[in-house]
Write a structure and sequence with these properties.
single chain; 299 residues; L-arginine/glycine Amidinotransferase, Chain A; 3-stranded mixed sheet; 22% helix; globular
Length: 299
């Protein structure tokens, strides 16, 4: 987890970080720090070991380390981040090196790839999400307020070739995103339960072809999210195997969704990190890098 000491909206790189008028939102840092501390305590009290990434005033996005990269065994592959967040990379490299991991560049060179936010396990498979990359800018429209912000997505489909070399033993399911409100895969998808074989999914965030692919693969293991549950980022949850499967999720999730998660034999822990979602566009999973890494197919 990234220390929230300097959490702020510096660039406004996703739709949640700006007001209707395009201004960057201001963070209530005291509230954010309290919410972060409670969340960290919830993880620890549930049996999760938490390592804290030191803060940097120049990199407020360090509070969202899910974008840091990916782990394979004892090797950390740092992400090729959005230019606005690229200065975070040396912080992640030093941190993982300090934990004893080998740090190896992502072989895709400048191919954009934002770590486990877009690449995560689902049973014996891996899910890789991507979408059109666009130059972030403001454009004119014919509807009030007559302009809008263009954001695009965060990972390039070309990263798939590199990921296949990193995890050659696992099938990779590539899915295309189409709704900028769900700019990373972990904002609309979450694998959970025993061996992470079940999948929360907000299907409208995916292209029609990707929806059909996911339905065919998931069958009865798919838990489709309502618009309301998707909007509160219920899919941006952290799944952990402790004594039994746990799922750390926003407390704003509906009772129906909580019931379905419980029926899957999963202990749900409700978390309030609303300041991080409302101002920064990241909820529970965005705030966590999973040091369990990419498990082997037999794990």
């Amino acid at each position: 987890m990234g220390d929230p000491e300097y959490f702020a909206v510096l660039h406004g790189s996703n739709p949640h970080t700006r007001t209707r008028w395009g201004a960057r939102k201001r963070v209530d840092r005291d509230l954010a720090k309290r919410q972060w501390a409670v969340f960290a305590d919830q993880l620890r009290s549930s049996g999760v070991e938490v390592h804290v990434l030191p803060p940097s005033p120049d990199c407020p996005g360090l509070v969202y380390p899910a974008n840091a990269g990916i782990l394979q065994g004892r090797t950390f592959y740092p992400a090729n981040l959005l230019p606005a967040r690229a200065p975070e990379r040396p912080h992640y490299e030093r941190f993982f090196s300090g934990l004893g991991y080998d740090v190896t560049p992502f072989a895709g060179g400048r191919v954009r790839f934002e770590g486990e936010a877009d690449f995560f396990p689902w049973g014996d498979r891996m899910i890789f999400t991507h979408g059109p990359l666009k130059r972030q800018r403001t454009v004119l429209t014919w509807q009030f307020p007559f302009y809008k912000r263009v954001y695009g997505f965060r990972s390039d489909r070309r990263a798939l070739d590199v990921l296949k070399t990193i995890t050659p033993q696992r099938e990779i399911v590539d899915l295309e995103l189409c709704d900028e409100r769900y700019y990373h895969g972990d904002t609309c998808l979450c694998s959970f339960g025993p061996r992470r074989e079940r999948l929360l999914a907000y299907l409208p965030a995916l292209t029609r072809a990707s929806q059909e692919k996911l339905r065919a693969l998931a069958a009865d293991r798919l838990v489709a999210l309502s618009d309301a549950d998707a909007a509160c980022y219920a899919a941006n949850a952290f799944a952990a195997e402790i004594d039994r499967p746990h799922l750390f999720m926003t407390g704003a999730a509906s009772e129906e969704l909580r019931r379905r998660i419980g029926e899957a034999g999963v202990e749900m822990v409700t978390v309030d990190v609303s300041e991080f979602l409302k101002k920064g566009g990241g909820s529970v999973k965005c705030m966590v890098f999973d040091l369990a890494g990419v498990p082997s197919p037999q794990a």
